[in-house]
């Protein structure tokens, strides 16, 4: 019964979506306040119904209602509760339901927080958002219905894929979807601006915070996914240039570009048309990612042909929205007024530079991901495009961005003084040079790129701090004054500083892990030890344990450094009878920013155990960097000027206060 | 066995858009990628083998190098690479040998050729086209500073003269 209610709620959401898709936008054309006024309540109601459908499916999972095909195929009564809940989106149908849940959530958020949006713009934005929603409601109801029943319900389910039975599944997909799907709002704003054929100040102020919000979640989601892969896989990799990863990375690159160019539009009224195009592109890449992953086209062209319904449906959605968006852009863009002239060497110029390189990087990832598919479809030739290709093309494209990053925020709007900025960055450059020299001195004959890469990371970080340090007057005025001044800086300034600083941190982590990681693969028996640099892992013994829905073999290692015991690590192997699957549970020990990593392999008949041990220097920074970036984004989002589009009236209030 | 691995790849799509690579599911084989008994006694040869392994694709997996994969085929290829190295092949000879045997599909970084030209030229292509587009757009948008007309010049000198008084 609950499943039917969920199904019905989803159908009702579709109906509300249809109303929302037509009425408000028509009302906006006719200047009909009643029709436009419908937009906000219907958007909220739509979200409520999708949430009800989602809750119904969750309830079926929690109660292990195996009369639902979806629950039967992806759940098991012995599964811990958290994985019953996360299992809701650990499969195709459920994850699409999460997709529309977040889509309608963003619609509702615009409806609620958009009170001071011009009525026409708001009505149009919400209608466009509903066009997307209707397409995906139909997709779910027609091709991927999670509420389908089984005539003769089985007694036990097939269980969720054991690899997904991990806390990562609770965090990673929702975060990622919030980012991915959140970009739909920027898209809806862009399409609404094109329909209205005007971009006003309100539009400019609104797009950036929404993009920023999506970007924060996307950054966290990608970082979280990377960390999950790192500790689950058992060979310590954290980024694979896998098409599924690329599918989420491309929208991130586009959203980063969008974020920066929206800044120009907001502050200087320039690059308007470009911002609109980027907003369309960013969400198009989200849709493309959905298509790539959902259609099965990545597995092989043949998998797509075997069950083409879903793939073709999304492909049609993709073509309609991307094609329609770009066509509308082509027709309407020339009507938009361009403003704000600037010299090539200026803050605007730097942001254009950033956009150019980010989009080239994004295009490289896009072409690299699609090339093998297209080539095989067209000529039948099979080639592989993997990590080595991306490393040798994406890397060089990103270096100029990193070098230019400290310069951008220091350049003046309109016309900048590159030489002056370079002088202000002397301290940062000196620190970078010092870092290069120090690393050379320490590592000696180590990898030759590493010292320079570290120097670049230091330059990025020191460069990020330069502006705030200057404005606070650190070392020039007394410390207390400097702190006071630093506190008084706008949060958006701090946000940008932290976000850029986070990039430097992540870079440090990437260099540390890729250049200085140490690995040891060996077979040892209980009582024997494995040594890795200064560390020694002593295998005390193994124990077999029974978990809720698996059996596990746990190996206990005592870890010593220079002979002193520093702790115990317990990697394990779990076998899940329901799926006849074995997973590796790695053991991690954090030492400052570095980690020790142990994973188990095969057990031999003589009791010896294959072990893979790593020491990964600075590895935590790879994920700490994005967290700092996201925190910077959140700080910027909390800036009053972004929230309500007005600067803090600090001086005004001081004048009005009565003299004591 | 191969079929089973491929099928497991399919199941991976249950997770959907999540970043966790499909490769993850291949861990289901109870093994580590590089096996202890595969490792060559000569560290120099072994490190060359590792470098090569990262460039070679495990053909039954999705986007995994033979260095990362647990598939039996990857094991066989790792052993093969090491045998060739021990026989005295250079890195290029090993790559040529494998390409001759399995086709270009085995290379994770496809060589530059007619049918990969577009792939390799993309990064620089977008950059150049983008830069040209920007240059063109800025030239079109910025009209040359128009000279003052004779009347305007007269008006300016008039104003300056008035101010002086």
Please mark out the parts of chain B with pLDDT under 50 across 5 or more consecutive residues, or reply none.
1-31
Shape label of chain A: globular
Task: Report the end-to-end length of chain A measured between terminal Cα atoms.
Answer: 70 Å
Percent helix of chain B: 40-55%
| Percent of residues in β-strands of chain A | 5-15%
Q: Based on the structure, what is the oligomeric state of the protein chains? A: heterodimer
Number of helices of chain A: 23
Total domains of chain B: 2
CATH architecture descriptor text of the domain at 1-161 in chain A: Up-down Bundle
Radius of gyration of chain A: 27 Å
Structural class determined from secondary elements of chain A: alpha+beta
Low-confidence stretches of chain A: 645-660
CATH topology of the domain at 1-161 in chain A: Four Helix Bundle (Hemerythrin (Met), subunit A)
Radius of gyration of chain B: 31 Å
SS summary, helix count of chain B: 6
The CATH topology annotation of the largest domain in chain B reads as Helicase, Ruva Protein, domain 3
Write up this protein.
The complex is a heterodimer of chains A (about 650) and B (about 160). Chain A has about 650 residues and is of the alpha+beta class. Among the domains of chain A are: about 1-160, Four Helix Bundle (Hemerythrin (Met), subunit A); about 425-515 and about 620-640, no CATH class; about 520-615. In chain A, about 65% of the residues lie in helices and about 10% in strands. Chain A is built from 23 helices and 10 strands. Chain A has helices at about 1-30, 35, 40-60, 70-75, 80-85, 90-115, 120-145, 165-195, 200-235, 245-270, 270-295, 300-305, 310-330, 345-380, 385-405, 420-425, 425-445, 450-470, 480-490, 490-515, 620-635, 640-645, 650-655; strands at about 520-525, 530, 535-545, 550-560, 565-570, 570-575, 580-585, 585-590, 595-605, 610-615. In chain A, the strands form 2 sheets. In chain A, strands 2, 3, 4, 5, 6 and 7 form a 6-stranded antiparallel sheet that branches. Chain A has a 4-stranded antiparallel sheet with strand order 1-10-9-8. In chain A, strand 3 (about 535-545) and strand 4 (about 550-560) form a beta hairpin. In chain A, helix 6 packs across helix 8, helix 8 (about 165-195) packs across helix 11 (about 270-295) and helix 18 packs across helix 19 (about 480-490). The longest helix of chain A is centred in the first third of the chain and has 33 residues, at about 200-235. Chain A is globular and about 80 Å long. The N and C termini of chain A lie far apart (about 70 Å). In chain A, about 55% of the residues are buried. Chain B has about 160 residues and is mostly helical. Chain B has helices spanning about 1-10, 45-55, 70-85, 90-100, 115-140, 150-165. In chain B, helix 2 crosses helix 3. Chain B is rod-shaped. At the A-B interface, helix 6, helix 8, helix 9, helix 10 and helix 11 of A face helix 1 and helix 5 of B.
